[in-house]
């Protein structure tokens, strides 16, 4: 009774917490505040101002953009965007031009706008067919919806003006719009895919057990687990992100897997309903307890990552698993005891005949698996760590479509902000700092993949020599600081290099190349690092993979020790270790054949999938060991009993896991799609290992 009251209290608290559920809309949530990269980035923003910006692009469908009507429209858009919520600044080719205030158009204006020296960089392309309005915003800590508010206003502005003219197209891009896309697609997945997965799993369960009542109980129990875990997460301040939102599917499938084991164990018992319920519950109690414990350990290991959303995924799921355990020992037996339930499972198997076949070909099975493992090791060793954050979105999404257009026609979303300082105190008549800054900018501007180099020399007139530059900069300090090119002290300067396209490997390589160029070609410039969102995302992938490799190794050792202690057998502990580790190896090898690269989503698959697949291995080995310990029982007999008790449940749970995760194959947020794809491959590999290779391995030395 007390346990049910505790569960009721948790459910009420969980429902209360759900009313304040938050959706994170800032890419910064992907980075821990204590990481060196994030601290450097925060320091840069404190000195130079917010780096969050959106680019509003106006393009001519045909012909030049520069005519009186289009410039008049640009002026109107510029002024309209000044009303953007959380605004810091708006910059366009009309910035600081009298026409912006007076609306007195003159033919000479067009000639002035064509002059690149008179226009902020990357706001007018060379073909004069696209121009942009850069909108910089600030992220107030008290307003978590700032990005959504600003992005919504910018998108609505594009919609308003696109209705007024068919000769122009309007696109948006930039970090602000990417942040908005994060939130939008998370909400879209929660509204569409999570309910869809519940419906699909309900129908699959009803078909497998030939009972809608059983399906209703299974989904209800899983729903309660999700409500409690998500509500509690909200109460402790966790905001949902696309990765942590996956916890809803993970908890759902884990709960369903436990229910499948329970119902199939009940079905195999004989006698009155209450006796069958008691015997079935006793049969699955220990393996469910141990399986949930190992799953919980697996997801808690995600705290070893440097990515808070994946830490949140681990913590929410771990709490959800604990809730699943409580529900299956308290709520489910109480519901089932209310009245007898009629159901009959499908997919009956002749496990005795199947085991004879395995016994006959056990050597061949193990040799083939050994060859497969060798090939897999070779393939996995060739995987390259690389990622592109714009590739986290499907090409069907509005953000990806428009970001691609902007990158091809005006400016890129990938950039590095290099912080530079004169080694000599300014002003200094003998300093070559400004000359060398100009030379550096000119050198990197020649690179094919560079859209532009933004620096103080992009703003000051080129006819000014180095000795005049300092005075020019001081007189334009407010403009330069508003554009983030000089810090508040006037001592630090930012050189931003914008790329047409870039992945994490390119960003890291360019960062190193830039620093090396300064060392070899300048003596007046002090380098204070390369920063920005592109650098943050580039570095996090490798850090995550390194930390998760350590985490998975620790987890495997921990699970091996737990299995050895639980089964009182070092041999079974070792068998369990390899049975759960090798499916992950096979899955990554398959991934290597398809894509050759691993990114942020792939970096956590090993820990997550290991935490889930270990559950089936636990049930199989528990029944095997329990019957092997009985007097005069051979390995073959113990395996036959184990397959009879757990084999069907393993197949059922695999169907549920694959079905539940496959829903995210339809997500437009490709981090989730990638995670789901590789996890599904792991589930299928684990099914083969549990029901084919594991029995073959255990039959190598048969006890008479």
Description:
- The protein is an alpha+beta fold.
- The chain has four domains: 1-35 and 182-241 and 248-281 and 304-342, Multidrug efflux transporter AcrB transmembrane fold; 36-180, Alpha-Beta Plaits; 357-386 and 533-704, Multidrug efflux transporter AcrB transmembrane domain (Multidrug efflux transporter AcrB transmembrane fold, Up-down Bundle), CATH 1.20.1640.10; 409-531, no CATH class.
- Helix content is 63%, strand content 9%.
- The model is unreliable at 116-120 (pLDDT under 50).
- How many structural domains does the protein architecture include? 4
Beta-strand content bin: 5-15%
The CATH homologous superfamily of the largest domain is named Multidrug efflux transporter AcrB transmembrane domain
- How far is the first residue's CA from the last residue's CA? 48 Å
CATH topology of the largest domain: Multidrug efflux transporter AcrB transmembrane fold
Q: How would a textbook summarize the main sheet?
A: 4 strands, antiparallel
Oligomeric state: single chain
Q: By helix and strand content, what is the structural category? A: alpha+beta
Q: Specify the CATH architecture of the largest domain.
A: Up-down Bundle
Average pLDDT across residues?
83
Number of helices: 24
Number of strands: 10
CATH level-1 class of the largest domain: Mainly Alpha
- Give the overall form: elongated
Helical fraction:
55-70%
The value of Rg in angstroms is 30 Å
Strand line-up of the largest beta sheet: 2-3-1-4
Instruction: List low-confidence stretches.
Output: 116-120
């Amino acid at each position: 009774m007390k346990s049910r009251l505790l569960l009721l209290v948790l459910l009420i608290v969980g429902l209360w917490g759900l009313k304040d559920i938050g959706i994170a809309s800032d890419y910064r949530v992907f980075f821990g505040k204590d990481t060196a990269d994030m601290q450097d980035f925060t320091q840069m923003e404190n000195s130079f101002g917010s780096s969050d910006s959106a680019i509003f692009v106006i393009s001519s469908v045909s012909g030049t953009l520069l005519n009186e009507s289009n410039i008049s429209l640009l002026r109107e858009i510029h002024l309209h965007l000044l009303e953007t919520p959380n605004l810091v600044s708006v910059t366009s080719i009309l910035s600081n031009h009298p026409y912006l205030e007076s609306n007195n158009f003159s033919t000479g204006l067009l000639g002035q706008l064509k002059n690149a020296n008179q226009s902020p960089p990357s706001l007018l392309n060379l073909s004069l067919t696209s121009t942009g309005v850069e909108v910089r915003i600030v992220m107030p800590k008290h307003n978590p919806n700032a990005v959504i508010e600003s992005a919504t206003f910018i998108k609505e502005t594009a919609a308003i003006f696109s209705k007024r003219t068919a000769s122009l197209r309007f696109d948006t891009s930039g970090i602000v719009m990417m942040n908005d896309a994060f939130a939008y697609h998370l909400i879209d997945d929660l509204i569409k895919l999570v309910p869809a997965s519940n419906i699909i799993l309900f129908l699959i369960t009803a078909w497998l057990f030939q009972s809608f009542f059983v399906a209703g109980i299974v989904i209800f129990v899983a729903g309660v687990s999700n409500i409690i875990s998500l509500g509690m997460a909200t109460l402790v301040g966790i905001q949902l992100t696309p990765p942590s939102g996956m916890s809803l599917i993970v908890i759902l499938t884990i709960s369903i897997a436990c229910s499948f084991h329970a119902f199939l164990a009940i079905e195999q018992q004989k006698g009155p309903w209450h006796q069958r319920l008691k015997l079935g519950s006793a049969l699955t109690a220990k393996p469910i307890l141990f399986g949930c414990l190992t799953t919980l350990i697996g997801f808690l290991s995600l705290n070893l990552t440097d990515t808070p959303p994946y830490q949140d995924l681990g913590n929410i799921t771990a709490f959800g698993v604990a809730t699943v355990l409580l529900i299956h020992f308290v709520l489910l037996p109480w519901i089932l005891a209310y009245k007898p339930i009629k159901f009959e499972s499908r997919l009956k198997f002749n496990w005795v005949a199947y085991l004879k076949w395995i016994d006959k070909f056990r050597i061949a099975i193990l040799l083939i698996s050994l060859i497969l493992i060798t090939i897999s090791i070779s393939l996995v060793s060739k995987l390259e760590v690389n990622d592109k954050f714009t590739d986290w979105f499907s090409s069907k999404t509005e953000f990806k479509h428009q970001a691609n257009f902007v990158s091809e026609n005006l400016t890129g979303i990938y950039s590095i902000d290099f912080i530079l300082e004169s080694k000599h105190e300014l002003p200094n008549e003998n300093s070559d700092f400004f000359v060398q800054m100009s030379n550096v900018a000119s050198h990197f501007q020649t690179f094919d993949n560079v859209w532009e180099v933004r620096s103080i020399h992009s703003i000051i007139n080129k006819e000014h020599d180095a000795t005049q530059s300092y005075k020019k900069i001081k007189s334009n300090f407010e403009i330069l600081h508003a554009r983030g090119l000089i810090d508040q002290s006037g001592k630090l300067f930012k050189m931003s290099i914008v790329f047409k396209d870039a992945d994490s490997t390119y960003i890291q390589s360019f960062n190193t190349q830039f620093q090396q160029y300064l060392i070899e070609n300048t003596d007046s410039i002090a380098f204070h690092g390369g920063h920005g969102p592109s650098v943050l995302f580039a570095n996090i992938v490798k850090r995550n993979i390194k930390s998760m490799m350590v985490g998975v190794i620790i987890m495997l050792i921990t699970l091996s020790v737990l299995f050895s202690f639980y089964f009182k057998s070092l041999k079974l502990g070792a068998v369990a270790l390899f049975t759960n580790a090798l499916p992950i190896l096979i899955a990554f090898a398959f991934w290597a054949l398809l894509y050759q690269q691993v990114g942020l989503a792939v970096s956590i698959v090993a820990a997550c999938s290991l935490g889930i697949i270990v559950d089936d291995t636990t049930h199989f080995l528990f029944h095997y060991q329990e019957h092997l310990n009985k007097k005069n029982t051979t390995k073959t007999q113990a395996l036959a009993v184990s397959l009879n008790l757990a084999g069907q449940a393993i197949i059922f749970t695999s169907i549920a896991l694959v079905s539940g995760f496959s829903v995210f194959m339809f997500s437009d947020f490709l981090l989730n799609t990638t995670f789901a794809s590789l996890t599904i491959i792991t589930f299928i590999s684990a099914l083969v290992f549990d029901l084919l290779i594991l029995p073959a391995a255990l039959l190598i030395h048969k006890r008479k």
